[in-house]
Specification:
The chain is of the alpha/beta class and 276 residues long. It is built from 12 helices and 8 strands. The protein folds into 2 domains: 232 residues, TIM Barrel; 33 residues, no CATH class. Bound molecules: 3-methyl-2-oxobutanoic acid.
Length: 276
């Protein structure tokens, strides 16, 4: 299988083939996502919630993103790796936005970056694209805007906000992003946007008509103990299995049944005897 690129994704939209994307934050899980043949691995700033234990994504830093991106890239052979620009890394100046996007590519090894926002971010997106860095847009319920939205609320339900999301999608498409994540928007709005933009849309809580889907891996594997949004389907429920395995380990350590002989290493008696 060849490495997935922005052109692979464009072709998939044209052929009406769905695009699969999941987050990963470390080498082990990235290797599994890659082995499963998914198209895109997103090093999401959701690592703030599911890996670092923050309440939201706002505290995630560029150094966090570079660190986790490097690990994911080491685990990915074929999947395309996209890395999130965290809060405030692309808001202050165009120069800083390009420099930070460049770090995810040059230090982290990602193939592309993702950033949140539409019309208001177009100048920054253009400058990053001018630096030859592919950009994935992200609109709708953008988690970095949680304080402005007054919580994690579905966006685009009323006329004004639905219009704004369509404008955002069109502005990102026009400036040249290679794909747009639609998060937490009504299914029919996401369908309309998907039909109207030239690039693939990737939905999360945006219904079945998007060109692709993304989920946070810890949520869909049932490994996260915090709040799970309604749009998540648990494809596995690993948490009870993991806790059971850990309890068994504790019991065996306490009972002295682990490690057994086969888990140890041998030394020749002659060497032992000569020690004393
Ligand atoms: O950070 C993230 O995981 C994301 C996805 C949920 C789209 O942005």
């Amino acid at each position: 299988m060849a490495k997935i690129t922005t052109s692979t994704l464009k072709d998939k939209k044209q052929r009406k083939e769905k695009i699969s994307m999941l987050t990963a934050y470390d080498f082990s899980l990235a290797s599994m996502v890659d082995a499963a043949g998914l198209d895109i691995i997103l090093v999401g700033d959701s690592l703030g919630n599911v890996v670092l234990g923050y309440e939201n994504t706002l505290a995630v830093t560029m150094d966090d993103m570079v660190h986790h991106t490097k690990a994911v890239v080491r685990g990915s052979k074929n999947a395309m790796v996209v890395s999130d620009l965290p809060f405030l890394s692309y808001h202050i100046s165009i120069e800083e936005s390009v420099r930070n996007a460049g770090r995810l590519i040059q230090e982290g090894g990602a193939q592309a970056v993702k950033l949140e926002g539409g019309v208001e971010r177009v100048d920054h997106v253009k400058a990053i694209l001018d630096a030859q860095i592919p950009v994935m847009g992200h609109i709708g319920l953008t988690p970095q805007s949680v304080n402005q939205f007054g919580g994690f609320k579905v966006q685009g339900k009323d006329l004004e906000s639905a219009r704004k999301i369509i404008e955002d999608a069109k502005a990102l498409d026009a400036v040249g992003v290679f794909s747009i994540v639609l998060e937490g928007v009504p299914t029919k709005l996401a369908q309309k946007i998907t039909e109207e933009v030239s690039v693939p849309t990737i939905g999360i809580g945006a219904g079945q008509y998007c060109d692709g889907q993304v989920l946070v891996i810890n949520d869909m594997l049932g490994m996260f103990t915090g709040h799970i949004p309604k749009f998540v389907k648990k494809f596995a429920n690993l948490q009870p299995l993991i806790i059971e395995a850990l309890q068994q380990y504790k019991e065996e350590v306490e009972a002295g049944t682990f490690p057994a002989q086969e888990h140890g290493f041998t030394i020749q008696d002659e060497v032992l005897e000569r020690l004393y």
